[in-house]
Design brief:
disordered C terminus, about 15% strand
């Protein structure tokens, strides 16, 4: 049976351009899995989803939109229903799993859901429960139900599995772990192009969300303001950006610059030009339980990476070998770590080389896809629903 290619139908309203979905789909294809995408977009943006949780679910227009989208999904599925072995729901799929379970039962095929993250937890961390308690409780109930329907659930860390067990009561053995990894076609070592300057370039890029703790970076920049050899570049957009900029202005910092989102090629070149990639320093549950994609991307580009300590990241990436860890929510510890790396180029080279070697072994497109495929292969023969 191994000589026959595994066929997967990637199903749902998942975020088509989201890094996790692109890595999982491309990774499977790199491992000779035939992937058919059955996809219809439901959400226009993150803000669109937040509006739905706040009050949009009360609107008839919202429910009509859902009906139309899922009718389109059914039509799409009808055309591919005999062409796959396993149905996989992409992230986020809390709504999609309900329909997918019915369709997979009908065809007698196993169902897998790449949960990846809890949208219930994300909503809590963004304070949406203060705006709509009913909506948050409905979301929690939906996620509780959705987790019980697939034959297999996918997450990226043991810590997140423990959270789902505690909050939703899902047995740990229902999950399999597939690391986030990075798009190794886009993120890979390349020479710097920036003119040689005396400063030590520290780069953050991302969505300025609470679990990144960007204000701690600004505080660290303030503590290091007397060192003219260190400069911070914060790239991206997001909810905490305005507050971070205001804090930098309050301190009259000249060693920090804010840059709006760059096109992929320009962003990867900025990373190549940097001396240190900094990642996440917040203490939200989401931040502690996950290994942010930008961590893997820094490793992929053979850059020294500095991020906040935590059980998930420490389990996968040893401190002082693959990356450098410091205490979270602590600007003094963060500043001290940056200063240490600034004055120890040998350590930076060691981290860059060690992190890159580990990335090539475990976290490339091919490696992530291979891990995922190995979990799917034993399921090719249909199992009993909910097994």
């Amino acid at each position: 049976m191994d000589s026959v290619p595994l066929r997967v139908c990637y199903f749902g309203t998942y975020r088509e351009r989201y890094t996790r979905n692109r890595i999982m789909i491309t990774g499977l294809r790199r491992n000779h899995v035939v992937v058919t995408e059955c996809h219809v977009p439901l959400w226009h943006s993150i803000a669109d989803r937040e509006v739905a949780v706040r009050s949009g679910w009360r609107s008839l227009k919202f429910w009509w939109r859902i009906v139309c989208v899922y009718l389109q999904l059914v039509r799409c599925y009808w055309s591919v229903r005999h062409t796959y072995d396993i149905l996989v729901v992409g992230y986020p799929g809390q709504f999609d799993v309900l329909l997918a379970r019915v369709l997979s039962w009908w065809q007698g095929k196993p169902l897998v859901w790449d949960v990846f993250m809890s949208i219930y937890l994300i909503s809590l961390e963004r304070g949406l429960q203060q705006q709509n308690v009913i909506g948050i409780n409905l979301l929690r109930g939906l996620e509780w139900l959705a987790c019980r329907l697939p034959d297999r659930l996918i997450l990226d860390t043991e810590e997140y599995v423990a959270w789902f067990h505690t909050v939703h009561g899902i047995a740990a053995d229902r999950f399999r772990l597939v690391p986030t990894g990075a798009d190794s076609d886009e993120f890979y070592p390349r020479p710097p192009q920036a003119s040689q300057v005396a400063s030590f370039q520290v780069i953050y890029y991302g969505t300025f969300i609470p679990n990144h703790g960007v204000h701690y970076l600004v505080e660290a920049a303030h503590l290091l303001a007397d060192d003219p050899t260190i400069h911070f570049a914060l790239i991206g957009e997001g909810p905490d950006r305005a507050a971070a900029m205001q804090l930098a202005q309050t301190y009259h910092l000249t060693n920090i610059s804010f840059v709006e989102w760059l096109e992929p090629q320009a962003l990867t070149q900025r990373i190549a030009d940097a001396d240190l990639c900094v990642c996440a320093f917040g203490t939200t549950p989401q931040s502690l339980m996950t290994i942010q994609n930008k961590i893997y991307e820094g490793l992929a580009m053979r850059k020294p990476v500095l991020t906040g300590d935590g059980p998930a990241v420490r389990r996968q990436l040893p401190h002082g070998e693959a990356l450098y860890l410091c205490e979270r929510a602590n600007p003094k510890a963060l500043a001290a770590a940056i200063e240490t790396l600034r004055h120890d180029p040998a350590l930076c080279r060691k981290l860059a080389q060690g992190g890159h070697a580990r990335f090539l072994a475990q976290f490339t497109l091919e490696a992530v896809g291979r891990t995922f495929k190995n979990y799917l292969l034993p399921m090719r023969t249909p199992t009993a629903p909910g097994a």
